[in-house]
Amino acid sequence: MNFQFREKERPDDFVSSLAGRMRDYPLVECLSGEYEMREFRPDLIKELLNEYLIPSRMRVFLASKEFTSIATEKEKWFDTQYKKEYLPEELIEKCETCELIPELHLHSPNEF
């Protein structure tokens, strides 16, 4: 079995992930279970997008050395400084009512 666009990983990491998948998939699906989609379910895709891909559920991550002066917490393993705060309700409302931008769209399929 060949996964053309799958990232390369170290063999020991690959075996470890396979062992973990043995709990979730039948043995014959251990390699493909995480990646193979057996049926196209546009209704499910739409439901998930409408439920989870909404402004009130978004998270914004900003990373820069410039923010260290306002950081209030430190990450446990790498000692990275960070700060957590809720997005202002006003910003969430703006995002929920914003207009679509016609220039932001998927290109037409390549006919070649």
From TrEMBL:
The keyword Membrane does not apply. One of its GO terms (molecular function) is metal ion binding. Pfam families: Peptidase_M16_M (PF16187). Residues 3-112 form the Peptidase M16 middle/third domain. GO terms for biological process: peptide catabolic process; proteolysis involved in protein catabolic process. GO terms for cellular component: cytosol; mitochondrion. Keywords: Metal-binding. InterPro entries: Metalloenz_LuxS/M16, Peptidase_M16, Peptidase_M16_M. It comes from the Eukaryota. PANTHER family: INSULIN-DEGRADING ENZYME-RELATED (PTHR43690:SF18), NARDILYSIN (PTHR43690). This is Peptidase M16 middle/third domain-containing protein. The lineage of its organism: Eukaryota, Metazoa, Spiralia, Gnathifera, Rotifera.
